[in-house]
Design goal:
Blueprint (H helix, E strand, L loop, with lengths): L25 H10 L14 E2 L11 H7 L10 H13 L4 E5 L2 H12 L5 E4 L4 H9 L3 E4 L20 H11 L7 E4 L12 H14 L3 E4 L3 H11 L8 H10 L3 E5 L10 E5 L2 H14 L10 H14 L2 H20 L12 E5 H4 L9 H13 L1 E2 L1 E3 L1 H4 L15 E5 L7 H16 L7 E5 L5 H4 L1 E4 L1
Parallel strand pairs: 1-10, 3-4, 5-6, 6-7
Antiparallel strand pairs: 2-8, 7-8, 9-12, 11-12, 13-14
Helix pairs in contact: 1-14, 2-11, 3-11, 4-5, 4-10, 8-9, 12-16, 14-16
Organism: Fodinibius salinus
Subunit structure: Homotetramer.
InterPro entries: ArAA_b-elim_lyase/Thr_aldolase, Beta-eliminating_lyase, PyrdxlP-dep_Trfase, PyrdxlP-dep_Trfase_major, PyrdxlP-dep_Trfase_small, Tyr_phenol_ly
Length: 461
């Protein structure tokens, strides 16, 4: 078919295996969400019709990846699949050394323990829950240096993940470069709504950190999606292949943590990638204590093979265009329906503006958590809160952190759902929006110490 943007497009794959799903009755959904304490994480998957909780480990693998799984070398040491993975990372990302981990959290733990000392400060372009917690457990304090536009869900800035260079340099001058172990840079910033950082901004961050001899550690979970936005939005990159943009992004950093369960299209796995050989040797030694031998970390050989193939597929032009395109499709439908969402539409999900949808609920009434529960009740759609519950408590005062953004994330797994599923989701969101004034809030019923959004339970007020 000719490349005509005015004509309909289809997913660049065809389906050869299906997993049946069903929508249980309204009465059953009411019982299920009440038993789950109004926390969508505690629902059983069999009770969910369309699962938009996360894109982490929920994507569909390709026939080539499944074929690669059959080539798993499960040797305890020196697995052939490790070397295939190492080669793929060096080819597409450019990092010299890799340490495989069970998922991104393992890499976050290692880099935090290896680089952060008590009393350090870690600047970054908006926090992510697990990243920030690992930094705090290592004795550091996360400092948000993202541009102000990122905290405004209605601002149309095309690169809301950009670093405010003045904020960053002011922090370095105030605390001293020796108290900044590294700058934490995420591509496609999750908590901002899947928003990208521009290549120009990243180059300026690199120039500034070079001035003070501070490394950059890259959270590259969704780097291909960020690269696609650079191709679409940044002057000079419109004709550059996504894979080349990905490689350039990585070249501006000193190392990376990767949850391969997102961009790289696998159900489990991750790695720590480093250019510094001495730091790599320390990480190699550390992984044996916490994950597994340095040639498998927390992964089976078959999973490393699927990951090596997934890295290649993640930078395919047709794949990334369709992947982000499906997210844009849902977002544009909701905008046309008048539903308040984070704009511009991000890379991996559509983020509903719960503050705007439920303005009669204060943040103490947990509007995003409430909205996520209501979406499940309406049509069996599972989504995720990204607001005051996810933000946790101030470790010094014990009070809630109150983020500017109070969001519900409709996260689209890769290669899983059709456009018809997106239509069902949009209609459900619209239905809930239309009866928003009748919705009442929630209160905490149980709260764990760490990462409370995973396991907290709530009750109706």
């Amino acid at each position: 078919m000719a490349d005509n943007r005015d004509r309909s497009w289809a997913e660049p794959y065809k389906i050869k295996m299906v997993e049946p799903v069903q929508m249980i009755s309204r009465e059953e959904r009411e019982r299920a969400i009440e038993e789950a304490g109004y926390n969508t994480f505690l629902l059983r998957s069999r009770d969910v019709y369309i699962d938009l909780l996360t894109d982490s480990g929920t994507s569909a693998m390709s026939d080539r990846q499944w074929a690669g799984m059959m080539m798993g070398d499960e040797a305890y040491a020196g697995s052939e699949n490790f070397y295939h993975l190492e080669e793929a990372i060096q080819k597409y990302y450019g990092y010299e050394h890799i340490v495989p981990t069970h998922q991104g959290r393992g890499a976050e733990h290692m880099i935090s323990q290896l680089m952060i000392d008590e009393g350090d400060f870690v600047p970054g372009n908006m926090y992510f829950t697990t990243t920030k917690l690992h930094q705090e457990l290592a004795g550091g304090t996360f400092v948000d240096v993202i541009i102000d536009e990122a905290h405004d869900p209605e601002n149309e800035h095309p690169f809301k993940a950009n670093v405010d260079l003045n904020k960053l340099e002011d922090l370095i001058k105030e605390k001293g470069a020796e108290k900044i172990p590294y700058v934490s840079i995420a591509t496609s910033v999750n908590m901002a709504g899947g928003q990208p950082i521009s290549m120009d901004n990243l180059k300026k961050v690199r120039e500034l950190t070079n001035k003070y001899d501070i490394p950059i550690i890259h959270d590259m979970t969704r780097v291909a999606e960020n690269a696609y936005f650079i191709k679409q939005r940044e002057e000079g990159y419109e004709d550059t292949p996504v894979k080349e943009i990905v490689r350039e992004i990585c070249s501006l950093t000193d190392g990376a943590t990767m949850s391969a369960k997102k961009d790289a299209l696998v159900n489990i796995g991750g790695f720590l990638a480093l250019d510094d050989e001495e730091l790599f040797k320390k990480a190699q030694n550390m992984v044996v204590v916490y994950e597994g031998l340095h040639t498998y970390g927390g992964m089976a050989g078959r999973d490393m093979e699927a990951l090596a193939i997934g890295i290649t597929e993640s930078v395919d032009e047709d794949h990334i265009r369709a992947r982000v395109g499906q997210v844009q499709y849902l977002g544009e439908k909701l905008i046309d329906m008048g539903v308040p969402v984070v704009r511009p539409i991000g890379s991996h999900g559509v983020f509903l503006n719960a503050k705007k949808i439920l303005p009669h609920l204060s943040q103490d009434e947990l509007p995003a958590q409430t909205l996520a529960a209501e979406l499940y009740l309406d049509a069996g759609i599972r989504s995720m809160e990204r607001g005051v519950v996810s933000a946790g408590r101030n470790p010094e005062t014990g009070e809630h952190n109150y983020p500017d953004l109070e969001l519900v994330r409709l996260t689209i797994p890769r290669r899983v759902y059709t456009q018809a599923h997106m239509d069902v989701v949009a209609e459900s969101v619209e239905a809930v929006y239309q009866q928003r004034e009748d919705i009442t809030g929630l209160a905490f019923d149980y709260e764990p110490e760490y990462l409370r959004f995973f396991q907290s339970r709530f009750k109706k007020r």
